[in-house]
What we know:
Keywords: Signal
CATH architecture: Distorted Sandwich
Structural class: mainly beta
InterPro entries: Cu_amine_oxidase_C_sf (IPR036460)
CATH topology: Beta-galactosidase, Chain A, domain 5
Signal peptide: 1-23
GO biological process, one term: amine metabolic process
Low-confidence stretches: 8-13, 142-147, 158-168
CATH superfamily: Copper amine oxidase, catalytic domain
Shape: globular
GO molecular function, one term: quinone binding
CATH class: Mainly Beta
Amino acid sequence: MKYRxxxxxxxxxxTLWQAAAHAAPDDTCNGQSFSKTxxxxxxxxxxxxxxxxxxxxxxxxxxxxxxxxxRRVLGQxxxxxxxxxxxxxxxxxxxxxxxxxxxxxxxxxxxxxxCATGTLHAADGRNVLCETTRDSAAIPTNTxxxxxxxxxNSPATRKSAHAITAYAGVFTKTARLNPASV
Length: 182
């Protein structure tokens, strides 16, 4: 009897431990949120924050196809590091996110002119993100066909002594999330 109760106790503890290991991910929005619903009914919802090192960090990225339940497709996305190298060798490479940082005061303040067809979003009292929806004649896909329709874009720019780096997340109505760096 003593061994049965010990075995039963171990099974209960193992079950509780496994339940905790497979718990639902944290859905807390650390930052600001916005969403986009396309004419087709497809919807994106996400949070964003301006972090000193990473810059714009997207989190809790969720997609809902028309007439389907919403699902989380990505927990968090940010640029981890971008090296700026110059061909003449006169400048030491600069690792932007670890040495200079993508975010904080390094993000360029956007004006209404910079975001003429979109909506400006502010962090720390400055407009740093422009949310736009644009028509696209051909949205590249990873198949031989191009998708036609709209895409939702969230660009931000980072200024430095060497260059201005633009980066964005492009969200399509067909559940594509394309991080981009230019």
